Please model this.
Amino acid sequence: MLSHDERRAIQERLLAMIPRVTAQLQHIDGLVGVAVALKQKGGVTTDDIVLRVVVKQKKPLTALSADQVIPAAIEGVATDVVEQRLVASAARVYVGNTELFRGLRGLRPDVQELFCPGTILNPQRFMKTDISVFTFGMAHKIRVPLYRRLQELLEATGQTYSVYVSTALHENTSFDGSFVVTFEELQAIFNGNVYFMGYLSDTAVFNHLLDSTYLAAFFEKGLRANNTTVNAAMECGCTVITNLDEHSPAGLVHMGNVLDIHQCDRLPGRDESQRIGLSARDVALGQYGWEQLVKQLRAAAPREPVAGARAK
Model:
């Protein structure tokens, strides 16, 4: 169950999305408007906050062309499609801008036009610290227990530190209460030294990797060779703190070119960390880069027979 503050934060984020979601759905025939609401299922109102898409008439999917189907989720947020008659029967109707107000005024003369206040709910400046740790990846893969161990290692250095967390979502998933709980746990672990960055572009991720002391990436069993998060950090020369097992990529050595959280009794100093990062870059580019992958794929591909050549 989400707290009042958590629910309010989600609602404010969704309200800010309405103008661009409305623009995205303008091609939908019979579109009336988009709002933030609690999802209705089987005539029952649930606790799930969704983007409510109001249409003049709902139709079965079989009667719609592909471009007329409203996505089940937009930007990771579930949608709830309702007919115009539900707007007509609502006890009160509020809208967040003049365009929606004018569109619904004919249906509901009592509609009230409101607005969306600024949604910076946590105005917090980045503090310059001795150590910076960057972590990014899929939200549902964040392994809280290993971050507790990381916090112990950071505290043991006696230096100031900051942790920057960026996240993403797999297709067909959305933010729910479990993500909020995970982020609250990280906030408690790092005692105010953590910053949540949300979604970041490749350019932003690249710059964070260049500027950070460490990249932290932890997995359910251990690092695998197809983890692009770690590979990207190693290519940038950023020292990686992760968890290794017998199935982790060959050639990765604790304190040589990577830090294994399970074997760490201390974090290395700045010079040693830089050496590890540079060694990691050599491994990433030499063994796990695009050039090496293409080379191996070409070697494995069957050769096409040369035209006119005589079989032997």
In short: The mean pLDDT is 84. The longest strand covers residues 44-55.
